[in-house]
Design brief:
about 70% helix, Rna Polymerase Sigma Factor, Chain: A, 2 domains
């Protein structure tokens, strides 16, 4: 990458999706994305290259989110806000026939890292490669974990019908 502008063009959308999967608020995710890149410019000298730039940016984004939550005395997951999110991923289209509140309640009971993979994919619309990078795993691990989560979710949804 030649400049921070190139880094922004390459990763801003993915950082936004990551933050959207955590906040369920498009305006807040946009604000935190901007703050993440502002802080990245200020602290680029601290980037040692030990991780991928995207992983470093997501780590910074998570720090921005936690600072915002602490400052505003808020929690990460608000199911009411989550229901308002409309994404275009194939998984959301597949699950669109089901009650989203019920799906989120079921997902909330899943164990980590399965729960986070499901949230990142369904609400954040992130690629399996991006999910793997965020969680320190590979793309195949994220794909398999999501598939297992989707199968588990389908079984749980059928139990509730």
């Amino acid at each position: 990458m030649d400049s921070i502008e190139d880094v922004y063009k390459e990763y801003a959308k993915s950082v936004y999706k990551f933050l959207l999967s955590k906040t369920f608020d498009s305006h807040l995710a946009e604000e935190l994305t901007q703050e993440t890149f502002f802080q990245a410019v200020k602290s680029i000298h601290k980037f040692e290259g030990k991780s991928d730039i995207f992983t470093w940016l997501c780590s910074n984004a998570k720090n921005q989110l936690y600072s915002y939550l602490k400052k505003n005395n808020k929690e990460i997951l608000n199911l009411d806000e989550a229901l308002e999110i409309q994404t275009e991923s194939l998984e959301n289209v597949y699950f669109s026939d089901f009650n989203k509140l019920e799906i989120l309640k079921i997902l909330h009971k899943f164990q980590e890292p399965l729960k986070e993979v499901m949230y990142l994919r369904i609400t954040g619309d992130l690629s399996f490669k991006e999910i793997g990078e965020i969680l320190g795993k590979n793309e195949n691990w994220a794909r398999v974990t999501f598939y297992r989560g989707k199968e588990k979710l389908i079984k749980e949804v059928k139990k509730h019908e």
